[in-house]
Structure formats: structure tokens, C-alpha cells
Amino acid sequence: MKIKKHQAFEINPSLTDIEGIKEVTRNIKNQSELAVHTKTGELFELMPVKSLTTLTDSLTFTKVYTNSLSTISDLTVPGLKLLCYIMKNLKPGKDCIKLKADMCNKYCGYKTKLSYYKGLEELLEKNLIFRTEDEYEFWININYFFNGDRLNLVNVEEYNSKKLEKEKENMSKNELISNFEK
After folding, report:
1. Counting CB atoms within 10 angstroms of each CB, which of 24, 79, 96, 128 has the fewest?
2. What is the phi-psi region of residue 91: left when phi exceeds 0, alpha when psi lies from -120 to 50, beta otherwise?
3. Residue 1 has pLDDT above 80, yes or no
4. Is 34 within 8 Å of 45 (Cβ atoms)?
5. What is the CATH number of domain 63-146?
6. How far is it, in rounded angstroms, from Cα 75 to Cα 44?
């Protein structure tokens, strides 16, 4: 191995040319103020505007949660390539994606549909994706990866009621176990 032949850097070289970073200026309205014209005595409402310049990242990205890394690292080549296709094409804020063999084969470099179906089966077996009632559409496991804010998918009332149901179910199971042990 010739690791030493590669240049060593004192600071991260990718920091010098960060792709997709843009400067954005936003106008922020402050609370209105009353002003009096000194010659006429007329009352005016002034709305002061302050400009705020910030940096923003314009490149799209998909979050990959650390709890999914062991599952992802165990994928075969067909599964990993198909997962990459899904992550690249997943629309922001969406938890499902349409997959068709010919679309995926082109991206993944598969020669036959067999590799696509092997990858698809593997992603389903490892619960990285789930089937929907539409044969070409699949749910993604938002606990493993997501493009956007997962909280936008969650209806708080529905989440709380499901959580309460689960707690009741667990309590019932624990009562059954303790009664059985007596």
C-alpha cells in the first residue's frame, strides 16, 4: 500500500472550496414605529427593515441515521446501489418513492432486471423500504434515512394516541406475564 504517497494536509482542503454555499440576504421587518413630521405635525407609521445576510447550503442531501449504518454496511452490491438510487431520487419531505426496473438499472449499471430484483428483495428483507399497495411505489424506513424534517410527516395527536395505545398494550402484556408467574 502506498498511503504515504498521498498528500497530507494541515487543514481540511475541502473547506477552501465548499460547493453549494451561497450568501442570502433577507429583509426582516421590525416592529412599526410612529413618527411625527416636524413641520406639518402629521403622524406617520414607519416600518423599519433590517437586512440580514446569512450563508446557506444549496446542495440537496439525505440524512442517514447512525443506527442504520450497520444494516447498510451489510448490503450486497445490488442492494447498496439500489439504496443509493433511492437516496439520490427521494424528494424532500416524502416518505415514498416509485421504483421501476428500467429506471433503476440505468443508474445502477445493471445489465438485467435480476440484479434490480435482488437489490429490491434485500432492501425489503432488511426493512430499509416497505411495499405499498402500488407495485411500483415503496415506503422508505424514515428511521434509517430521510430527506427533510421527519416531524412534518407526524400528526402530533395521532402520534400521541398511538403511543398511548402501545403503552396500554405493554401494560396488559406485563399484567398477563405477572399473573401467569403467580
Report:
1. 24
2. beta
3. no
4. yes
5. 1.10.10
6. 67
What does the domain layout of the chain look like in residue ranges? 7-57, 63-146
Q: Which of 59, 80, 78 is nearest to 69 (CA)?
A: 80
Q: What pTM value is reported for the model?
A: 0.68
- Does position 149 have pLDDT exceeding 70, yes or no? yes
**One-letter amino acid of 176:** L
Q: Does the pLDDT of residue 176 top 80, yes or no?
A: no
- Grid coordinates representing 60 are 440537496
pLDDT of residue 156: 60
3-class DSSP assignment, residue 8:
coil
Look up residue 58 and give its three cell numbers: 444549496
pLDDT at residue 98 greater than cutoff 80: yes
Look up residue 15 and give its DSSP letter.
Answer: G
Most distant CA atoms of the chain, gap in Å = 92
With CA atoms as reference, report the closest residue to 34 among 24, 26, 25, 43.
43
**The pLDDT of residue 159 is above 70:** no
